[in-house]
């Protein structure tokens, strides 16, 4: 597949998650809530996590922002559900490295296995947008840390 076709596919995946977000809404019952915002662009997320016995059992989000931040939140919530917290944190670290354009070596997870998340790889070429892409991931990290304390 040529770069232009791949770029078009990635844009389509990002816009699909933006227009049809997965796991958007509020969790019922006991859960952890983390609210974060990016004051430089106005992105805001309210992430809810249900963590039981060291496993992320469910995740949902509400918020508003650009297509990058909202699609990243949609993708993140899908990926962390049913993952042990330690794996969710490793995936978040890998995502952060991907955003910084680092080599993706030494991880137990292959970016190909993470589905739609690989569509956000191109964000690393736009430093001003990296905070948009990582906002939901930072919220997830804070949420699981709250659970551990």
Task: Briefly summarize what is shown.
Pfam families: NifU_N. 46% of the residues lie in helices and 19% in strands.
Structure explained in plain terms:
Residues 10-132 form the NIF system FeS cluster assembly NifU N-terminal domain. There is one protein chain. This protein is an alpha+beta fold and 149 residues long. It has helices at residues 3-19, 67-80, 85-99, 127-148; strands at residues 32-38, 43-52, 55-64, 83-84. It has one domain: Sufe protein. Chain: A (Alpha-Beta Complex). A four-stranded antiparallel beta sheet has the order 1-2-3-4. Helix 1 crosses helix 2 (67-80), helix 2 (67-80) runs parallel beside helix 4 and helix 3 packs antiparallel against helix 4. The longest helix has 22 residues, at 127-148. The model has no long low-confidence stretch (mean pLDDT 87).
CATH hierarchy: architecture: Alpha-Beta Complex
Give the class-level CATH name: Alpha Beta
Please give the largest β-sheet: 4 strands, antiparallel
From the 3D structure, determine the CATH topology: Sufe protein. Chain: A
Rg calculated over all Cα atoms: 15 Å
Give average pLDDT, whole number.
Answer: 87
Low-confidence stretches: none
The total count of helices amounts to: 4
Task: Annotate the secondary structure layout.
Layout: H1 3-19, E1 32-38, E2 43-52, E3 55-64, H2 67-80, E4 83-84, H3 85-99, H4 127-148
Antiparallel strand pairs: 1-2, 2-3, 3-4
Q: Notable features of this structure?
A:
4 strands; 4 helices; single chain; 149 residues; Sufe protein. Chain: A; four-stranded antiparallel β-sheet; alpha+beta
């Amino acid at each position: 597949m040529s770069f232009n076709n791949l770029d078009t596919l990635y844009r389509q995946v990002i816009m699909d998650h933006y227009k049809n977000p997965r796991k958007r809404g509020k969790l019922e019952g006991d859960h952890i809530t983390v609210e974060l915002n990016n004051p430089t662009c106005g992105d805001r997320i309210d992430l809810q996590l249900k963590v039981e016995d060291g496993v992320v059992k469910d995740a949902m989000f509400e918020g508003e922002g650009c297509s990058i931040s909202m699609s990243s939140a949609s993708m993140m919530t899908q990926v962390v559900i049913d993952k042990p917290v330690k794996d969710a944190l490793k995936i978040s670290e890998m995502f952060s490295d991907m955003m910084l354009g680092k080599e993706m070596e030494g991880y137990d997870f292959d970016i190909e296995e993470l589905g739609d998340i690989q569509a956000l790889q191109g964000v690393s070429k736009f430093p001003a947008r990296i905070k948009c892409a990582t906002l939901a991931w930072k919220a997830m990290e804070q949420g699981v840390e709250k659970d551990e304390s």
